[in-house]
From TrEMBL:
Keywords: Membrane, Transmembrane, Transmembrane helix. Residues 56-98 form the Nitrate/nitrite sensing protein domain. The chain crosses the membrane at residues 12-32. This is CHASE3 domain sensor protein. InterPro entries: Nitrate/nitrite_sensing. It comes from Allorhizobium borbori. It comes from the Bacteria. Pfam families: NIT (PF08376).
Amino acid sequence: MRITDFSISKRLWLAIMIPLVAALTLASMEFLSSWGSYRQMQTVVKVSENIAAMGELIHVLQGERGHSAGYIGSKGSTDKQPLVTARQSTDAALAKLPDLSDG
């Protein structure tokens, strides 16, 4: 069976459909690739926001650690208020930390 055995309308239909199917296939593949990149970028944004919150928590934890070491080193003879303030700052930073259990 040769292409000339087909009617003109079928040949025209094939001449249009084959490139159209190829173009749709390539467009679908490009769309899926772009969608995957978009989802990855959403994950990067979420992770970077979490890293910022963790950095703030680490900073205030180090401050609390320093105040705790100073208070313990003085055997309780220094003012306890800076330690209490540092603990409140730690609690506030911990409350800002997003729930990371959902992945």
